Amino acid sequence: METKSPNSLQESPTPSGTERTSEDGIQLLKAVKEGNIELLQQLLEGGAEVNFQDEWGWSALHNAVQCCREDMVNLLLHYGADPCLKKKNGATPFIIAGIVGNVELLKLFLSKGADVNECDANGFTAFMEAAVHGKEEALKFLYENGAEVNLSRKTKENQKRLRKGGATALMDAAENGHADILKILLDEMGADVKARDNMGRNALIYAFRKSDNGNLVDIISLLLYHGADVNVRGEKGKTPLILAVERGHLGLVQMLLEQEHIEIDDTDREGKTALLLAVELKQKKIAQLLCNKEASTDCGDLVMIARRNYDAPLVKLLLSHGAREDGPPPVEDWKPQSSRWGDALEHLRRIYRPMIGNLKIFIDEEYKIADTSEGGIYLGFYEGQEVAVKRFSEGSTRGQQEVSCLQSSRANNDLVTFYGSESYKDCLYVCLALCEQTLEEHFAMCSGEAVENEEDVFARNVLSSVFNAVEKLHQLCGYTHQDLRPQNILIDSKNAICLADFDESIKWAGEPQEIKRDLQALGWLVLYVVRKGELPFETLKTKSNEEVIRLSPDEETRDLIRCLFNAGDNVQGHLNGLLGHPFFWSWENRYRTLRDVGNESDIKKGAVNSEIVQLLQPEKSECSRSFARWTYEVGPRRHRQSIFPKVQN
Known about the structure:
alpha+beta; Transferase(Phosphotransferase), domain 1; flat
């Protein structure tokens, strides 16, 4: 075999600078993991890249902190390691020190510029990590150095849209079974027991998340003692009571049933109550406890399920508490009127829900229509009619104003239909006609569909309906709206327009400024509708009246807005006069009016005393309802070209 001489001209390749750096970096990480400080120092003295990171972003410093090797940490910092270097998930050495609970390292990194509330890419702070891992001393140290106890986890926007994040250190401690940490957070640090994450879950729900939570009873007891909401919902709409039944934990069920505001008949998203689940799971003792607490037995085929499980004692128990042998009647065939909300309505109609008077409702995201400043708007059924239910706290001034205004305007077809209201457990439920979308949503969906040179019938119809609604609200009902905006103008399944949201309305006491505020908002709405929502309503509110008028696309719109902005003091009947404004005339009616007027003999002769001539030239003091406000020729030439051939034919 031929061998190569040491003196051969062909030498083995030497590693490049990049390869050498990578090899040294890997050796650096290995030295830390193996606890070999001599090798670590040797590599650093030999020029190894101190901030080298592996594919997950781990550096030698991150590893040294994880291993609680303070000597290695100090050595690495001495050789220039970045104390704020982040892993791929955004975790810094300071946050890792919180995980391992090393107070000395926490002190060190704070002195090196760490922010006590800095977080990784998932929103975890060192304080949260200390709560997750039960590191009491680290938790107290961080609290004393300014850590925010009730900080909720911030996530990336795409995650937030999925309702991820928002959890607090209290939830972390509850989930991981750290009763001692939980007690410190509540008793010494002022943790908010009512805090919710982005899915609406509180610490009670988090306590049930891990099946091996050995301190569950202590944690639930502590949270309830501090006032945690016992009716909160978790995954699949399950309440703490339902979760306790699923676990078969009689003591927890008993503890929860002792709470003053417990909703014993509440259901999950499948329409199952705690009692129905107890029967399905053959939990006779829990079922008996629930029945003794007067849980409804009208929540499913309880007797049939018990018979199917050959559980005669449970059948006897259920029958003794009023359960029906044949179960509830089958749901009749039914089709929703709403296309947008149809699936959710069908599901709500199918599942069991305890009635609130004449109202069937489920306060759950699946049935939420919109958020409000108080309790939100949800789908529901009122006396069997599909409705939108606006929720207020009992005694709410806004709720009282809404109901009072709606009750006084039942005959006004241009206002949203009011079916009735119910009160239950400190909440007022206002039941209204269910609509498909708001005006704002309509324009968002139809952006770019406008066709140039065509008559805008939609704008005319929308504004005519809104003007009629507000005019009747002022004249017949004696109220002013005070919150006119696109979100409060609704479109139903038949494309009819109605005005809604009267929780800021006020009874008119003769103050002109109250009506002028509505007229001002109508001026903004006119331009918003004519421009098909391309100018945001909130932006229009920031502009001067002159700017709004100047942005109008034609003379009719400009004049109508000008009339709304300059109403004078005689305001109560002002809108009634504007309903005849040329803006609301169709192109065909404009032409016919000019043609017919032009053919009047008095016009041809110029008879100044003629009634029609005087109508065309009203005195300044008159509130003209004629087309005298028509200050422009029939329209731009393109309009005339569209109208005249059509009409003359």
